[in-house]
Amino acid sequence: EVQLVESGGGLVQPGGSLRLSCAASGFTFSSHWMTWVRQAPGKGLEWVANIKQDGSEKYYVDSMKGRVTISRDNAKNSLYLQMDSLRAEDTAVYYCTRDCSSDRCPDRFDYWGQGILVTVSS
Amino acid sequence: DVVLTQSPLSLSVTVGQPASISCGSSQSLVFSDGDTYLYWFQQRPGQSPRRLIYKVSNRDSGVPDRFSGSGSGTDFTLKISRVEAEDVGVYYCMDGTHWPPYTFGQGTKLEI
What we know:
The complex is a heterodimer.
Chain A: E1 3-7, E2 10-12, E3 18-25, E4 34-39, E5 45-51, E6 58-60, E7 68-73, E8 78-83, E9 92-98, E10 116-120
Parallel strand pairs in A: 2-10
Antiparallel strand pairs in A: 1-3, 3-8, 4-5, 4-9, 5-6, 7-8, 9-10
Chain B: E1 4-7, E2 10-12, E3 19-25, E4 38-43, E5 50-54, E6 58-59, E7 67-72, E8 75-80, E9 89-95, E10 103-104, E11 108-111
């Protein structure tokens, strides 16, 4: 059974940092791109970042470029999101989701974690 | 970036009646490989998003056959043939052709 479990969220002051983790199981983690998506309270879904299978390619939403770094450890089946210089508008539930493993991408965003809340407030 | 526009943004439906949600794209979502990477997700209250439909019309495993997706180019539709109480939630379309960034529609809230 595919499982994605996020951790590391919580309350942080504006300007602070937080590192989110996503533990994956039930599939060959190293075969998939992986993605972070967030959802501000009462708002819609927003893609944040994704990373290629070997970590050689990374892409970020413009609003977080320079403040966020996505990474992965295939040996630990884990995905990470390092967030720095956090702002109130970064307050959201952050989800990790499985992305493509091959051409034609039948598995893009087919499994999601339960989400982890990040609150940026003084 | 691609803009996806969903309509309506809110939908109130009686159980057993059909429902339809439209998703319009500012650009064609046909990729160079010939596929169209348009997805539909359901988010029930308090839950994570769940993928319902991939590449316009392919229903995910476990998704009831009352859900169907259709469309081409820039215009897409999610239809529920007979709404059930468990279908309450917010529905999002998403472009997987012109990434980065992946773009979601604003969401359509379905109520009973």
